[in-house]
Write a structure and sequence with these properties.
alpha/beta; six-stranded antiparallel β-sheet; 70% helix
Length: 1152
């Protein structure tokens, strides 16, 4: 197989299609760090079937898809294509006829990855096996990734063995062996299941045989039961027939009696109808008399009501007429008053008009004189004002001085009084502050106490809550344990029932010895194979029949070989079988065949696995199917074990139930305690809140008192300063008298001028008073004149309205007078009408009494006929009931006959007489119904006592037998498959071991040669350690560079470790060269000299193998030794691009 090229599309940073040709020789991959060189190696491994995202530096398989950059969108898929040239000796036959093989792997978001080989879908497993057979693959040592050299150096020996496996080409062998082991495990599991099914089928076959016998007995009883049921139904049909005939006779007799009674009732009905015909007329007469009487009573009451209404109406009319008279009188008085007032106002209007003549001229002259005196007064007052201002100024200054003095004295006095009151208030506040401070102190102590109570309540609540959590956890634990124990107990009881059912179903012989045998656990198969099914027979008292008869023991004649352990030590059994057991010994399986030759007649030895060796040479292998006795002994042992477990489980269940109940009660108690604790915490919290509130109020009161005290002290200091200022001002004001002298002089001048002004003011006031009086009279007369005009108009309207009302009242008075005259004759008319109705009422009462007497007599006669009819109707009803009862009995009997007949016809297809003849029923000796039912009940009980019966047992048995035969064939096939698989696995192990040892020798030789080549001397070798089997051994590297002692790889320097690891990798490579080798920066730890050696080694490998090398490097020396170079760049951030240079062609061009 040759690798030709690899193509990437959307794989990691290679978003654009990139194709790399894999040509013979050395191909170098160069580029700066982080440009995507290692992505090429990962693409190679990915297309070869790598399925671990972490191995290709990803968190998930979709991480290989290009995720996008700022300039490019993300891809939805990634694809890598690998092109190979095939070789017939390596490739599968499917591709033998093709020249090239193209392997494609594509992964799509949200869909997954797919593989294709030459366009056909393939599995990941197919790809991995394809490359494994070609000594390469995703995990091939020829694909060396970054850090793999370090991993090899630090790997444990068993991990290094993988290099040898690759060199031996047995990586695929391991996979195939693993698959074969899985198939072997599955086949053995299937074989075990088939064996279990066969055992179950055998038990079912035996059970079906018993069921078939039981079904035959069941059918026999059912046949007898059917005969007796037929006899019973015939007997019941005959009894129903007899009952039908008797009911018909009784019905005829009762029908005759009913006809006679019906004739009597017809006669009674005619007499009743004749009397009943007279009743309507009498009732009509009585009703008419009663109606007339009632009508007269109602009319009399109506007349009485009308009389009362007439009297009330007359009274009302009289009152209204009296009211009209009073209204007319009132209107007359109103008209007279209006006329008098109107005349008086007319006279007043004439006088006012007369007085108002010439008032305007008088008013003008008076006004001018008043104005002139007012101007004179103004001039005098102006001069007086100037003098007054001067006096006022002097007076003000004097008064101001006096006022200041007085005010200063008053302020001083007030200040002294305020100081005294402030001192008193200060003392009171100091006392109050002391009280508040005492209260704050008491409340602070109360707060501490309340906080302590609250903390205590909190601690109690927390403690109880923790106890509740613990109690609930304990309750939950016991509940779960109780439920688990109950489930376990139920499972044990179910298993016990199943085992008992199996034991009972397989029990064919009563009281077998097997029921009295107790075998030590593990020895069931040994006892079963030794005794076969002989334990299934009972103990017999006489030497008759099949079973165990008591015989004396003869231990001395049956002494077992020395290496045998007597089986009697492992079993408890009746003495009847002790003689048989004494000749049986238990040995190890490996010793059985050797001891068989030393057995005496009648002796046999068994192994715990179920092998048997008899004295006569007969042997049984442990692989044979276990006997019924073995199965029964296992079940008995398991049953005893289950009973012990059930007893213990029941005891544990009871204890757990008690513990669960106690835990539940404790949880309830803790819940109540939590409720109490929460209530106490709430009370404590409330108390603390109240105390804190009171304390806050008290502290606030203290602060207020302190503030007031400070304010009062500041006030006292301020008042003291004010007192000094006032005393100084008083002393200054008491020595000043200049203002008083000037004031007296000016006051004398002012008094003289005031006299002049006062005289002028009197004259002006007199003239002003004359003018005002004249003006007032003029205005008053004008207003009065207007008012009189309005009053005249008003009284004229009132007088006119009163006359109109008087006319209306007179008309209504006349109208009511006429109505009064008409109403005065109504009481007399109604009284006459009432007397007339009284006579008619007496006559109607007599008529009603007569009609009522006649009606009562006729109703008494009618009632007599009704009673007679009722008696007859009762008798007829009773007879009808008897008829209906007799008819029902007859109908019931007939229906019973019909039902029995239908039942006989439906079940037997014959009528009763034919069935009776067929059954040969003797009418004289036939059993009674109770006897037949008792016999049927006995047969049914007997059939039911048989329990569930499988009527298809015989058919099911044949079907099951066929299935058993098929399973036997399957078992043989599975056993053959197991043998083949074991042989195949053994062959794979042998071949793998041989190939691994051969590869080890070659690798060891190559490793030593390459080590000497790279180090220029020294020695190195490999060793298999930790296990004798090469397939499970580890690989240790022992090396001795020139000038140093022999040591392991871990004791070398870093560069020496790298060269040694490279030597090992290429040593493996040379044993089974891979078609491709990719080295990712393996030369990074090496210096220039070692790089030269490394490159020389690459040249040697290229010359000696057909392998194509791809070297990813940063080292210039390595680049210079390459045949061609591919450069990976990342011009665009996040996007890798590829450029190539063929150095060989370049050299030829330079040389040319």
């Amino acid at each position: 197989m040759k690798f030709v090229k690899i193509r990437l599309l959307g794989f990691k940073s290679f978003v654009d299609p990139v194709e790399i040709s894999i040509l013979p020789g050395l191909t170098g991959i160069v580029g700066p760090n982080g440009c995507g060189k290692s992505n090429l190696l990962e693409a190679m491994r990915w297309v070869m079937g790598e399925n671990r995202p972490t191995s290709i530096r990803g968190g998930g398989m979709e991480d290989v898809i290009f995720a996008g950059t700022g300039a490019r969108p993300a891809r939805n898929y990634a694809e890598v294509t690998l092109t190979l040239e095939h070789s017939d000796s390596v490739n599968p036959s499917d591709f033998a006829k093709t020249n090239d093989v193209e392997i494609v792997r594509r992964v799509t978001k949200d869909i997954g990855s797919i593989f294709k080989i030459n366009g056909k879908d393939a599995r990941s497993r197919d790809i991995q096996m394809f490359f494994a057979d070609a000594s390469t693959g995703a995990h091939s040592p020829s694909l060396v990734k970054q850090g793999q050299i370090s991993e090899l150096i630090n790997a444990n020996p068993k991990s290094r063995r993988g290099l040898l496996e690759d060199a031996a080409g047995i990586s695929g062998l391991y996979q195939r062996r693993h698959e074969a082991e899985l198939k072997l495990t599955s086949t053995e599991s299937n074989l075990s299941r088939v064996q279990d099914v066969l055992e179950q089928l055998e038990g079912q076959l035996r059970s079906l045989e018993r069921q078939a016998r039981q079904a035959s007995k069941y059918k026999e009883i059912s046949s007898q039961l059917r005969d007796f049921e037929s006899l019973l139904i015939i007997k019941k049909w005959r009894e129903a027939n007899e009952k039908f005939l008797g009911a018909s006779s009784a019905l005829t007799e009762v029908s005759k009696k009913l006809a006679i009674s019906q004739k009597e009732i017809v006669v009674c009905l005619k007499n009743k109808e004749m009397n009943e015909a007279k009743l309507p007329e009498l009732r009509d007469n009585q009703n008419k008399s009663a109606s007339a009487l009632q009508r007269f009573i109602i009319e009399k009451e109506n007349i009485k009501t009308r009389e009362d209404s007439a009297r009330e109406l007359l009274s009302d009319f009289e009152v209204r007429l009296q009211q009209f008279s009073e209204d007319l009188e009132r209107e007359d008085n109103l008209i007279n008053d209006a006329k008098t007032t109107f005349d008086r106002l007319k006279v007043e209007e004439h006088q006012l008009e007369k007085l108002s003549f010439g008032n305007s001229e008088k008013l003008r002259i008076s006004h001018e004189a008043a104005e002139k005196s007012f101007q004179d007064l103004g001039a005098l007052e102006l001069k007086l004002d100037l003098l007054s201002e001067k006096v006022a100024s002097l007076t003000a200054e004097n008064h101001a001085s006096e006022n200041r003095l007085t005010k200063a004295r008053d302020d001083l006095h007030t200040l002294n009084e305020d100081s005294l009151s402030i001192e008193t208030e200060l003392q009171a506040l100091l006392s109050e502050r002391i009280k508040e401070e005492q209260k704050v102190s008491a409340l602070s102590e109360g707060k501490l106490i309340s906080e302590g109570k609250l903390d205590e309540a909190e601690e109690t609540l927390n403690r109880v809550e923790l106890e509740l959590v613990a109690a609930l956890e304990e309750e939950s634990k016991f509940r779960n344990q109780f439920a688990a124990k109950e489930a376990e107990l139920g499972a044990l009881k179910s298993e016990e029932s199943a085992i008992l059912e199996l034991i009972n179903s397989s029990k064919e012989i009563e009281n077998p010895v097997l029921e009295k045998v107790i075998v030590e656990k593990g020895y069931e198969k040994a006892i079963g194979v030794a005794m076969a099914n002989e334990f299934l027979f009972p103990i017999i008292t006489e030497n008759v029949g099949t079973g165990w008869f008591e015989m004396p023991r003869t231990d001395e004649l049956y002494k077992l070989p020395d290496d045998c352990n007597p089986i009697m030590n492992k079993i408890t059994a009746p003495s009847a079988v002790s003689r048989a057991l004494s000749s049986i010994g238990v040995v190890d399986k490996c010793r059985g065949q050797a001891l068989q030759k030393s057995l005496k007649p009648g002796q046999k030895i068994v192994s715990m696995e179920g092998d048997l060796w008899r004295w006569d040479g007969y042997c049984i292998s442990a692989e044979e199917r276990p006997s019924d006795s073995t199965l029964r002994l296992r079940r008995d042992n398991r049953l005893r074990e289950i009973k012990t477990l059930i007893f213990n489980a029941e005891d544990s269940t009871r204890r757990l139930e008690d513990q669960f109940k106690k835990a539940k009660e404790l949880s309830s108690i803790k819940r109540e305690q939590i409720s109490d604790a929460r209530e106490k915490r709430k009370d404590s919290d409330d108390e603390l809140s109240r105390v804190i509130s009171d304390l806050s109020k008290a502290e606030s009161s203290c602060e207020i008192c302190e503030s007031k005290i400070n304010n009062l002290r500041n006030t006292i200091q301020s008042k003291s300063l004010d007192k000094k200022t006032f005393e100084k001002e008083i002393r200054m004001l008491e020595g000043n008298d200049v203002y008083q002298i000037n004031l007296n002089k000016e006051k004398e001048k002012l008094d003289e001028h005031k006299i002049l002004v006062e005289e002028s003011r009197k004259k002006m006031l007199e003239k002003r008073t004359v003018y005002e009086e004249l003006k007032r009279k003029v205005e008053s007369r004008g207003k009065r004149l207007e008012q009189v005009s309005l009053e005249l108009e008003n009284w004229h309207d009132r007088m006119h309205s009163a006359k109109n009302r008087k006319r209306e009242i007179a008309l209504r008075q006349e109208e009511f007078s006429k109505k009064l005259k008409e109403a005065e004759g109504l009481p007399t008319f109604l009284k006459e009408k009432r007397n007339e109705l009284t006579e008619l009422l007496k006559s109607a009462e007599l008529s009603k009494a007569s009609a009522t007497d006649q009606l009562l007599k006729q109703e008494a006669i009618f009632k007599k006929f009704l009673e007679e009819e009722k008696i007859l109707q009762t008798r007829v009803s009773e007879l009808r009931e008897q008829v209906a009862r007799a008819d029902a009995i007859k109908e019931t009997a007939r229906e019973s006959m019909e039902n029995f007949k239908k039942s006989i016809d439906g079940e037997f297809g014959e009528d009763p007489d034919q069935l009776a003849k067929k059954l040969k029923i003797d009418d004289h000796n036939i059993l009674s119904v109770p006897s037949i039912e008792e016999k049927i009940h006995f047969l049914r009980s007997k059939r039911e006592s048989m329990g569930a019966v499988n009527l298809l047992a015989e058919k099911d048995s044949s079907v099951l037998a066929k299935e058993y035969e098929i399973l036997l064939e399957e078992k043989e096939d599975l056993e053959g498959a197991v043998k083949k698989l074991r042989t195949g696995i053994t062959k794979l192990n042998t071949d793998g071991r041989s190939r691994l040892l051969s590869a080890f020798e070659k690798v060891n030789e190559n490793f030593n040669n390459l080590f000497v080549h790279l180090f220029g001397g020294g020695t190195a070798n490999l060793a298999l350690i930790e296990n004798e089997d090469p397939l499970d051994a580890g690989l240790e590297i022992m090396c001795q560079p020139p000038g140093k002692k022999l040591s392991t790889l871990s004791l070398l320097s870093g560069g020496e470790q790298t060269l040694t690891a490279i030597s090992l990798i290429f040593a493996v490579f040379l044993v089974n060269p891979s078609p491709i080798c990719v080295l990712d920066e393996v030369d990074a730890p090496l210096d220039d000299a070692n790089v030269q050696r490394f490159c020389s080694l690459l040249d040697k490998m290229t010359a000696n193998t057909d392998t194509r090398f791809m070297i990813i490097t940063h080292h210039a020396l390595t680049m210079s030794r390459m045949d061609r170079l591919y450069g990976v760049t990342m011009v665009e951030r996040g996007v890798s691009q590829l450029v190539s240079v063929d150095l060989q062609k370049a050299e030829k061009m330079i040389e040319a």
